[in-house]
Specification:
Blueprint lengths: L3 E5 L4 H12 L5 E4 L4 H11 L6 E4 L2 E4 L1 H9 L3 H6 L1
Parallel strand pairs: 1-2
Antiparallel strand pairs: 1-3, 3-4
Helix pairs in contact: 1-3
Pfam family, one: Glutaredoxin
InterPro entries: GLR_AS, Glutaredoxin, Glutaredoxin_subgr, Grx-like_ET, GRX_bact, Thioredoxin-like_sf
Protein name: Glutaredoxin
C-alpha cells in the first residue's frame, strides 16, 4: 500500500473530512501541519502547485484536495490507487 501524505492545518474542515474518508477506507494518512512548520507550506506549494489545504498525495500521485479525493472515490478510482 502506498504512503498517503496530507498537508493540513488545525482549523480546516475539509482536512477533517478527507481524513475521515481515508479512515473509512482503512487508511491513516501521514499529516504534515503547515501551520506548525511554515517551510512545509512552501514544500506543499512546490509539490502541488496549490495554496489551499488539504493537499493529498497517494504515493507519487497528487490527488488534490478533499473535493478531488471525494470525486475520485465516487468514480471508483480511490481504492485501486490505495492498493497499488
Amino acid at each position: 500500500m502506498p504512503t498517503v501524505i496530507m498537508y493540513t492545518t488545525n482549523w480546516c474542515p475539509y482536512c477533517q473530512r478527507a481524513k475521515q474518508l481515508l479512515q473509512s477506507k482503512g487508511v491513516t494518512a501521514t499529516e504534515i501541519n503547515i501551520e506548525a512548520d511554515p517551510a512545509k507550506r512552501d514544500e506543499m506549494m512546490q509539490r502541488s502547485g496549490r495554496r489551499t489545504v488539504p493537499q493529498i498525495f497517494i504515493g507519487d500521485h497528487h490527488v488534490g484536495g478533499f473535493d478531488d479525493l471525494a470525486a475520485l472515490d465516487r468514480q471508483g478510482g480511490l481504492m485501486p490507487l490505495l492498493q497499488a
